[in-house]
Every structure is written in structure tokens, then in C-alpha cells.
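Bench notes, afternoon.
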Amino acid sequence: MLQTELIQNERKIDIYLDYALSKLGLNFANIGTRYFKELVKLAYFNADDLNLKYKDLCISLGKRLNVNPKKISSNIYSSISSANIDFAKKNFQSIFYIEFDIFFLTPKHLSILLVNILNRKSQSQ
């Protein structure tokens, strides 16, 4: 891919993640939401490594941002646990095409769902 195509693709992903996370009731004033967005992008762009684990993603993001991985994980957990559940219930199926279950509102599960959606969107283009 050319550099301009990569930049355009990353912008589309940024826009989509902003949309999806806000529809799920996450607050962008919370630093954990912004960390989570970056973590999902990191997982998506490293999709060739299918063994990426949430903890490893936090470590990689911590190195990239020069922030303690435990702080990143804690902030993400706090952001997701304080999400507006009514928004999440209302919009979950339109984003992920599966029925809402509180089980999915964890950093690990949401990151997997979002990366899967991004992969499907990129394959359909």
C-alpha cells in the first residue's frame, strides 16, 4: 500500500472507532477510551499475528506511548466499566450484528469484536 492509502485507511478506522465507541456509551473525555481506541488500532494493524493477547497489546501500547501498561489497562477497564449501558444495549447489535450481552463489555472481548468488524469492513472494500 502507498503511504497516502495507509493514511487514508487509518483515518477511516479512526472515524469508525470514534463512532462505534461513542455509540457503545464510552466517553472520550476518559483517557481510557482513547487508550482503548489506540489498542484496537494496534491489534488491527498487527492482525498478521493471530496470537496477540490483550495483556501483550497493553505492553506494546505502553512502550509506544511511554506509559505503564498497568495504567493503560486500568484506565481502559475503568472507561469500559463506566460506559453508558443503555447506549450499549441500544446500539450493540447495529455495530456487531450480535445480540447484546454484558459479557461482551470487557476490554478483551470488545477489542476482539472491534478488530473482527474492522477486518470484515476491510475485506468488503
